[in-house]
Amino acid sequence: MSSWRELESGLAPPTPHHHPHASPLSSPTQSRLCLLTSTLALFLITYLSLSPESPSHPISRKLEERERLSALWADGGATGGSGRWRIVLVTDLDEASADPAGGGGGWGAYLVGGTLVQLSDEEYTVQWEAQDRIVHLHSRIGMGGRGMELSWLQFFNGVLYSGDDRSGVVYAIRQLADGTIRAIASYVLPDGDGTQEKGFKSEWAAVKDGQLYIGSFGKEGAN
User: Fold this and answer.
1) Domain range for residue 148?
2) Is 151 one of the annotated binding-site residues?
3) Residues 159, 174: contact at Cβ < 8 Å?
4) Cβ distance 191 to 202 under 8 Å?
5) Domain annotation covers residue 157
6) pLDDT digits (tens, 9 = 90+) for 157-211
7) Together in a domain, 105 and 177
8) Residue 134 has what DSSP assignment?
């Protein structure tokens, strides 16, 4: 990559040539043009240094996070098209989500990885990960004495999300720098038209046309 001095010299203004009908620029105008040129050059250099291949680029960071999470359940060759598919499940333990062992109370859920294996045209089996690879998630956010009843998992924009169908909280499941995996409360979805005190009972999520849709089930005859 070119050094700052090389780029700076390449952007140096050309030797001026006066046209007989041109009006000379005043010193303040020249100063403003020099400042604008320097600002644009600095912006261009910063943008190029943050290309998608750069580790500091936001897209690169999201992909790296997704790869780190996916690697927790990777076992080599377990991909669709070969009769093997990687799967990840999250628990909705209802009242059993109470998690006093989490420290100070709260609620808990578990991420469990495995591999769906096709044995024949009509027969499948699941190979679950070892117990020591099960991920425990904990939160102290709940509603009505319940919480962390996670009903779905969905990757969106490189982040793994899950939703609590009691509190309406949407969690981003992230791996921190120290290697620990946490459920971080990122959004709260109210019920009804979005003005209700009760949390939205999210039961599923899907990505379509670059948008994340989060839904529930319907009740016949209920408003």
Assistant:
1) 72-215
2) yes
3) yes
4) no
5) yes
6) 989 999 999 999 999 999 888 888 999 999 999 998 889 889 999 999 999 999 9
7) yes
8) P
